[in-house]
Design brief:
The protein is mainly α. It has five helices and no strands.
Length: about 100
């Protein structure tokens, strides 16, 4: 995880495009999804799934706020974690992505 973050800091969007292709098998042409694409995606997804994603984002945020304030143990080590912990970082990025998508509506 740390290598990926450092690569993105160093090479910016170019690293994001390459890493997305490497890990997800998707060759992106842009990093931002426009509003019409988001609206079209919402029409294809069950509203219950959208509600579940909103709830997940809220719960992830609540957990990480508590983790940040009280140094809660993590799933990977059982020891208090910093923001560099693998699960913490992954969940933080997931939450940020979900919020960015859902904030547009």
């Amino acid at each position: 995880m740390r290598q990926i973050i450092n690569d993105v800091r160093r090479r910016g969007d170019k690293a994001l495009f390459e890493l997305t292709e490497k890990f997800d098998g998707a060759k992106l042409t842009a990093l931002e999804v426009n509003k019409s694409q988001i609206k079209a995606a919402y029409k294809k997804v069950d509203p219950k799934l959208v509600d579940a994603m909103k709830l997940a984002a809220e719960r992830i945020g609540t957990f990480h706020q508590a983790q940040k304030e009280r140094a809660l143990p993590t799933y990977t080590t059982g020891k208090p974690a910093g923001w560099s912990d693998h699960w913490s970082g992954s969940a933080f990025m997931l939450r940020a992505a979900l919020q960015a998508i859902l904030r547009r509506y």
